[in-house]
Amino acid sequence: MKNEHKILIIGGGFAGVKCAQKLSKQHLPEGTQIRIVSNREHFEYHGALYRVAAGNTPLEVCFPLREIIDTQKVDIIHDTVTKIEKKKNQVKGASGSTYRYDTLVIALGAQTIYFGIPGLRENAHGMKSIDRAIGLKNHIIEAIESCAHSKEGKETCGTNFVVVGGGATGVEVAGELVEYAKKLSTMHGNDPSNVHVDLVEAQNRILGLMPEEFAKKMHRRLQDLGINVMTDTAITESEAQGVLLKGKNMESKIAAKTVIWTAGVRANALIEEAGFTLGRGRKAVVCKHLHAQGHKNIFMAGDVAQTTYSGMAQTALYDGAYIADAISRTLSGRALSPYKPRGVLYAVPVGPGWAGASVGSLNMYGRIGWWVRRLLDLIVFIKIAPLDKAWRAFGAKHEAGELCDHCKKEE
Predict the structure, then answer these.
(1) 194 with 156: CB under 8 angstroms?
(2) Which residues make beta-bridge pairs with 38?
(3) Domain that holds residue 19
(4) 0.85 cut: is pTM over it?
(5) CB 126 within 8 A of CB 261
(6) Bridge partners, residue 226, by sequence
């Protein structure tokens, strides 16, 4: 009888997909079973969702899993993981199914948190999925259209926008949004100068994880686009018609029908619920081989692992590939190579055709920074999808409303 070893990957993001892809190409012992459980039938490239919200095609960020994973080697299961039972070596799904494992790879990514701020969950738009990005795009269009024949002032109609969170996503969204909203306003006969975007950040500067000189340059770029950047300012309440803010010696209210929340993320809550040892950001503490502390048969990848560059797509891809190799080595009795964090390239767009890129001590801005970002996008696409599909996504010029079949099913 064959000695079947069950490898279970939970999470269909960067780390999970890359791990499945690499494992499918490894020479594993006969009888090895590889399964990946994902709550979506497609892979989403979150790094480009800000462009979807500003009218670009979702085809740029959507890859059906069955087109990028070898289904002859890997079983793809569409289910939402609801519980990890370490002592029983099994995972429960929302479908009622139980998935047993000998080796578990946890690549569940991050989830949005609202810090208990009143009204935020109900009234703010998020940016964690294609669904949310398309919903935001439609809301922006409706908000601008509502002003076309409105006699309301710009403070009470739909041309005021508040983006909360000065990290990379918030900066990208604000930069793209101001140009998109002005374009829509012009199309509908509104005065584009009425468009107003506030970027609110609770810390004393934006892009807190990036070099200070780089962040200052990006701050100035946002201001050049007409965006009001408010640092040292926190949101205390969100309402249907605006937000309440509190800063140093000030409290104020901004009227806006569109609030976009990009500030709060944490490692998937299932990590904490399962009782793993947690570190900063509620991420799992890992050993030198990315095993969860105290669990030699459980690996942590991407946003759920406490590593130096956790939270970056480049890191998640690297983690997935490393873990696939580690599993192959373990099953063949070979020694594991220690995990060594790999430096990342920062490239943050701020408006169409302009980006800041930071590579080590070298910073690049403007059109060259934009092309660095686009090159980074292409590299990510190539690492996830076959070359023809990667190139198609990279150069997608379809109508903004067009969706891939899998996105249509899950919108």
Answers:
(1) no
(2) 78
(3) 6-39+79-112+266-344
(4) yes
(5) yes
(6) none
